[in-house]
Design a protein that fits this description.
By secondary structure, the protein is mainly alpha-helical. The protein contains one helix and two strands, in the order αββ.
Length: 64
């Protein structure tokens, strides 16, 4: 009979560990997605178009 309790406790431990692992994996994936999106947004906002001045050959920010 004690072996049954040990098996039940081990099974419950495995189930709890599996649930924790799944939740942790989802949390990390969501955090990585948020970070990736923030980096893409930051990169898109920071792009400045340049135009070349034909007289001097110097590139300067484009005036729209």
């Amino acid at each position: 009979m004690p072996q049954l309790f040990i098996l039940l406790a081990a099974g419950a431990g495995v189930l709890l560990a599996r649930r924790w692992y799944r939740e942790e994996r989802q949390r990390i994936a969501a955090e990585l997605a948020r970070a990736r999106q923030a980096m893409e947004q930051r990169d898109a906002e920071g792009i400045v178009r340049l135009e070349r001045d034909p007289a001097t050959g110097v590139y300067s920010p484009r005036r729209d």
